[in-house]
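To assess whether ligand presence alters the predicted conformation, the chain was also submitted together with XIL. Input:
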Amino acid sequence: MMTSWFQRKPSADSAVWLRTITAALMCGMVLQSGAAAPQTGAAAPAAGALRQAGEARHITIGAAAASAHLAEPDYAAILGSEFSQLQGENEMKFGVIHPRPDSDPNPYNFKGGDALVAFAQSHTMVVRGHTLIWHNNVPDWVKNGGYSAPQLAEILHGHIKTVMTHYASKVYAWDVVNEAFNDDGTMRHTIWYDQPGIGAGKGTKYIEQALRWAHEADPGAELFYNDYDAEMINQKSDSIYQMAKDFKKRGVPLNGVGFQMHVSLRYDNPATLASIAKNLERFAKLGLELQITELDVRLDDSSAASLSAQAKLYGEITTLCVQQPACKAVQTWGFTDKHSWIPQFYKGQGWALLWDEKYQKKPAYQAVFDGLAR
Ligand code: XIL
């Protein structure tokens, strides 16, 4: 079992994993599926329980994080103890990490990303990179630079190469392309699809090109396509599935698919959950690794009834991953309601994460723990 745990993270810093295993063994943890399953029941899980319960299931437990919050003691303590993976919520996006043109003496800004990697390494966590290509967070110098198609292609190639080389052996997996499809399954029009001359009118060609460049830049990294509202079987997930099937058939270096899972309580019905399970299964059959990458369950209020319904859905989603062997990670989009993106983007909604704004565990925490332990 220990061997398979190692093999699952071929590109992660082995020293980090060695430290993780050593720490786990020192805690008396048994690294065998099932054997270490913490008992559910009256006793509240001890600090760090989520991550340990995940390790026992071979599921990485992640959170999106921001380096600015690391100075908050509660934030750092929970992130560093309860999670085995982190991902920059914004700090590895194009506009943040590559804010100036390549003609500038200092085109890149790795400060935030480097701080997150350093935190992860000192807390035996692995790091997921997010994201190399997205229609959002494209800096003005790219949008307004008047570049020709070949120049834009060169900018993109250089970006992928520089960022991935910088984080080689530190970031084990990348969301190479994020949100490239519309809800109806057609390709989304973005600067990267329309203009660099490698995409428009050529379907998924620019995604293929990006994956090939990414593989060249860091052959050890796991390469993901990531999207939202593709959890169920629908037009968008159908298109992603067709792309993934085609890529696998032709040896395009795609290792996994990330399902963001930004959901509301509406997802909690048997038909939806069954559709998600079926969808995960068809992607798994292609030989892909699956990850839940941006989980949150937004609410309209923080009543006890809402928090309990939220906990139920968190538990069910965790179970979906546990029951699907190809599902290797459950990552929430942040972890405290104090720093969640939801109130800003979904007016009137919030309370979406496992800890409240005062860093107190919510019922959803226990439900995820129970889902892993079950
Ligand atoms: C969001 C961040 O949480 C916000 O802080 C930022 O202002 C906008 O982006 N899908 C994604 C993430 O892939 O990158 C988005 O993150 C949320 C939706």
